[in-house]
Write a structure and sequence with these properties.
The structure holds two protein chains of two kinds.
Chain A (H helix, E strand, L loop, with lengths): L5 H10 L4 H19 L2 E4 L1 H16 L10 E5 L26 H8 L3 E6 L33 H8 L5 E5 L6 H7 L2 E4 L20 E5 L2 H11 L29 E5 L9 H16 L3 E5 L7 H16 L18 H12 L2 H14 L5 H21 L5 E5 L15 H6 L5 H6 L3 E9 L2 E8 L5 H14 L10 H4 L2
Parallel strand pairs in A: 2-3, 7-8, 7-9
Antiparallel strand pairs in A: 1-3, 4-6, 5-6, 5-10, 9-11, 10-11
Helix pairs in contact in A: 2-3, 7-15, 9-11, 9-12
Chain B lengths: L4 H10 L6 H19 L33 H5 L5 E2 L2 E2 L7
Chain lengths: 488, 95
């Protein structure tokens, strides 16, 4: 079945050529057919979805609703959904039914989307392959033996396989852009603070940001119109007006300046992927933009900086899981301390424990200045590099990942190898900037992602560059075959 | 910097994580490699650099000191394994 964009679905719904119920039933049928192999969903909310679809159809029939009314969508299982299991990919929360909705969930519900379920993810969003999930790895729809990336691997795989036209995700160090690249879909991460973190289970609060997986940049703009905006319940949410993100799509790129950071094209980048990226960036030149080489001299520091800041914040955020108020509680604890220790031992997986311990270590007495304080200074230098570049360019373009999708099991035993996979995405989080990954070619049948980065609150410009690229190319229209058609 | 078994035991205690004897060697090895990775940052010259306090240089908002949240105790306690009379139950703390 051909994948359809939100824009196409919305037009069909308005024309009356399809109903939201029919779309939702088709989505649920694809999930039940393909999910046993993909493992992209942790929870499917079929009854609630059909009820929401019927409500959407009634609104559409009355000539009401907006561009998202009746559109099926999946939420990453990091977003709290009232009355629905919210696991964050962890045994710790395998029994957690959220008593409230995340801001993102509320906003999209108000816009009329139909939520079909909750997607699989690396445990507490800590991972780059979806292999740390308590619910098992997700398969990449392009090759089931390969990882779809992570941490939002389930959302990426669900959109790539056409199970849903869109899904939410979160990006702390690349967790939207990297899986989007590895599965050949569009993955958009807004500026830090643009979308409220309320009800989004916290990993590293100074880096976490919600975003979306879609087939097109135009669809991402539509979803951003519903998701972005001030929410007093998130103390770092930006209190500034939200533009119509679709308004700038199509604006001319003539005279725009695109910078290619030389550090992103070093020996670490797979040569075949590099070829795709260079060809993709040349498309902007054909649209009247100028391309120039730029430098991010401190970008090498971004991986060590991130693996101090993120674990430090994670060790603090995850201290709330104590076996008392919610989440997994160990049996047989003889005192309060052993209740904490045993509940946390049983509830968390190995990578989450490693990050909690790394964070505890770098924040411990005697080490704080050498690690955490030094990392916050490095972060200032990294952010300063980006800021300086944006004085002379409108957009930074480069690869999203060093290689196309790697095999499940290939890197999971070596945390440092896994961390290095995020080398091109992490700096963007440390600097709080918006970025998108769009499909730009294939290497040995596997998708390659082009990363576009803008200045803070430059979402409209980033989405316009991505949209213009998708007007000139059809990589984003390439869909993986269903396995039964690919055998032999 | 290579961590020792006793380093990892003390970190695990600070993090309130039970680590069993058969797991400790793996944590020592993998955490040491992670610490080696982040130790590389020590070489970066950060003289006179002001540490980042917020990615967008914003300051924390204040709000009026008014009651905005209503009581949801019963709903929230649905997620606890053991509650009684509106309290969370834990192992005995005082003798």
């Amino acid at each position: 079945m051909e994948r359809q964009s939100i824009v196409e679905i919305a037009a069909a719904l308005r024309a009356g050529s399809v109903t939201s119920r029919a779309l939702t039933e088709a989505s649920l049928a694809r999930i039940s057919r393909q999910n046993p192999a993909l493992n992209a969903f942790i929870t499917v909310t079929a009854d609630a979805a059909l009820a929401a679809a019927d409500a959407a159809d009634r609104r559409l029939a009355a000539g009401e609703g907006g561009p998202l009314t009746g559109v099926p969508l999946a939420h990453k299982d990091i977003f709290c959904t009232q009355g629905v299991l919210t696991t964050c990919g962890s045994k710790m929360l395998s029994n957690f039914v959220s008593p409230y909705d995340a801001h993102v969930v509320e906003q999209l519900a108000a816009a009329g989307v139909v939520v079909v379920g909750k997607t699989n993810m690396d445990e507490f969003a800590m991972g780059s392959s979806n292999e740390t999930s308590y619910y098992g790895p997700v398969a990449n729809p392009w090759d089931h033996e390969r990882s779809p990336g992570g941490s939002s691997g389930g959302s990426a795989a669900a959109v790539a396989a056409g199970l849903v036209p869109a899904a939410t995700g979160t990006d702390t160090g690349g967790s939207i852009r990297q899986p989007a690249a590895l599965t050949g879909v569009t993955g958009f991460k807004p500026t830090y603070g643009r979308v409220s973190r309320y009800g989004m289970i916290a990993f590293a609060s100074s880096l976490d940001q919600a975003g979306v997986f879609t087939l097109t940049a135009e669809d991402a703009a539509l979803l951003m119109n519903a998701m972005a905006g001030f929410d007093p319940r998130d103390s770092t949410c930006a209190d500034r007006p939200v533009p119509d993100y679709t308004a700038n799509l199509g604006a001319s790129l003539a005279g725009k300046r695109v910078g290619m950071p030389k550090e992103f094209f070093d020996a670490g980048l797979d040569p075949a992927s590099a070829e795709c990226i260079r060809t993709a960036i040349a498309v902007f030149e054909s649209l009247g933009a100028t391309i120039e080489e730029i430098s991010l001299p401190h970008i090498d520091a971004s991986v060590p900086t991130y693996y101090i800041v993120a674990p430090a914040e994670c060790s603090s955020n995850l201290s709330r899981f104590d076996g008392v108020r919610f989440g997994h509680r160990a049996e047989g604890a003889h005192d309060l301390e052993s209740l904490y220790k045993l509940s946390r031992k049983e509830g968390f997986g190995a990578e989450v424990k490693r990050r909690i311990m790394t964070g505890t270590y770098v924040l411990s007495a005697g080490y704080y200045d050498a690690y955490y304080l030094q990392a916050q200074k490095a972060r200032q230098l990294i952010a300063g590099d980006f800021q300086k570049c944006f004085e002379s360019v409108d957009l930074i373009a480069g690869p999203t990942t060093p290689t196309a999708a790697f095999r499940i099991g290939e890197k999971i035993d070596d945390p440092v190898q896994m961390y290095l996979n995020d080398i091109y995405t992490i700096g963007v989080n440390l600097a709080g900037l918006p970025g998108v990954s769009v499909p730009c070619g294939f290497v040995e049948g596997l998708p390659v992602g082009l990363q576009l980065i803008g200045p803070a609150f430059g979402e409209s410009a980033v989405l316009n560059f991505a949209h213009q690229y998708q007007q000139q190319t059809d990589w984003h229209r390439q869909a993986p075959g269903v396995p039964s058609n690919r055998e032999g | 910097m290579a961590l020792t078994i006793s380093d990892v035991e003390s970190i695990a205690h600070l993090a309130r994580l039970e680590v069993s004897d058969d797991e400790i060697a793996d944590y020592v090895e993998k955490l040491s490699r992670i610490i080696d990775l982040v130790d590389a940052l020590g070489k970066l010259d950060t003289t006179d650099v002001v540490p980042m306090a917020h990615p967008l240089d914003m300051s924390q908002r204040l709000r009026a000191d008014e009651v905005t949240e209503t009581d949801h105790r019963d709903a929230y306690q649905q997620n606890s394994a053991t509650v009684g009379q509106g309290f969370y139950r834990v192992p005995k703390v005082l003798d």
